[in-house]
Amino acid sequence: MGYKLLKTENKARRGEFSTVHGTVQTPCFMNVATVAAIKGGLSTVDLKEVGAQVMLCNTYHLHVRPGDDKVKTLGGLHKFTNWDRPILTDSGGFQVFSLAKLNKITEDGVTFNSHVDGRKIFMGPEESMQIQSNLGSTIAMAFDECVANPAKYEYSKEACARTLRWLERCKVEMDRLNSLPDTINKNQMLFGINQGCTFDDLRVEHMKEIAKMDLDGYAIGGLAVGEPKEDMYRIISAVEPFAPVDKPRYLMGVGTPGNILEGVSRGVDLFDCVMPARNARHGQLFTKKGIININNAKYILDDHPIDEECQCPTCRNYSRAYVRHLLKAGEMLGMRLAVMHNLYFYNNLMTEIRENIDNNSFEDYKNEYVDRLDTRI
């Protein structure tokens, strides 16, 4: 198991990431199923139809409901969701700092109130690893401190140091859990997370430190949270030279098609974002010509598919007029068809990116689409 770099075009990387649940062709977009389901009514069977390779679920949400202990009793996330391909579980760190009412950060971890029922919960590196082990995911993310941008330099520096210490504890605990006889996935992988807000020196130093730990992969976290995209691109370029070449690089929570193209051109292998599904539910749909709002009146009598170049189940079978009608009428089918299209679009975008890196034409492809795909028509 592990990452194999097959080809490069400048900084863009074409690779294969082998796991106990199958091999992922990279660059890859991971489809976000926060509570073990894609919002919008897509099943794991649908995910395969739209070309998904990896499903991403969230530790915090599944710990709160239905409970990671119950998921373990039911055989783990793969059996629970009927998904036989890789699953990545986010550590819960971001949700602890963004959704929950934060009470206290200590060296041990974080005490906070559940956003569901208000009960007090403690989560630290060991607890996060234990929950993710119960879930049986393919890849577990290390528990980190997510600092909101803009942030003060000194606090960001302290948070980086704490995240590094927490990562060391995550690694020890995962090794212990993977050795237990009742562990669902004894080959669970661990990804560390690079932090440091928008401070280049903190980012670089932190990446150097976590790279020494020989983890299964390395993520860049704490970006795409409101800072200008130019800052995000600058940070990726700053840390990339210090990320291990033989391990996958994961840009967390990103992003638009243009963000993904820019990320790939800077050496990123893995991406995830709720945006394609969330925006689809509100009628914002991606096409090769740009972004359309299907709720607009001009689509009332439009009998064309959402994207005439698209081969997704929605575009093969239904018109813009019909999808618009369903969304306007509040029919669940409208959201389902819209989400199916956007996720197919994202997964197909990654297929085209891989093909263009294979053919030494990625830079031309990027230059043609990087602005167009993010432009609203």
TrEMBL record:
It comes from the Bacteria. The active site is at D90 (proton acceptor), D272 (nucleophile). Keywords: Glycosyltransferase, Metal-binding, Queuosine biosynthesis, Transferase, tRNA processing, Zinc. It catalyses: 7-aminomethyl-7-carbaguanine + guanosine(34) in tRNA = 7-aminomethyl-7-carbaguanosine(34) in tRNA + guanine. One of its GO terms (biological process) is tRNA queuosine(34) biosynthetic process. The keyword Transferase applies. Its EC number is 2.4.2.29. Its cofactor is Zn(2+). Substrate binds at D90, S91, G92, G93, F94, D144, Q195, G222. Pfam families: TGT. GO terms for cellular component: cytosol. Gene3D superfamilies: Queuine tRNA-ribosyltransferase-like. Binds 1 zinc ion per subunit. GO terms for molecular function: metal ion binding; tRNA-guanosine(34) queuine transglycosylase activity. Residues 253-259, 277-281 are annotated as: RNA binding. HAMAP family: Q_tRNA_Tgt. Catalyzes the base-exchange of a guanine (G) residue with the queuine precursor 7-aminomethyl-7-deazaguanine (PreQ1) at position 34 (anticodon wobble position) in tRNAs with GU(N) anticodons (tRNA-Asp, -Asn, -His and -Tyr). Catalysis occurs through a double-displacement mechanism. The nucleophile active site attacks the C1' of nucleotide 34 to detach the guanine base from the RNA, forming a covalent enzyme-RNA intermediate. The proton acceptor active site deprotonates the incoming PreQ1, allowing a nucleophilic attack on the C1' of the ribose to form the product. Homodimer. Within each dimer, one monomer is responsible for RNA recognition and catalysis, while the other monomer binds to the replacement base PreQ1. This is Queuine tRNA-ribosyltransferase.
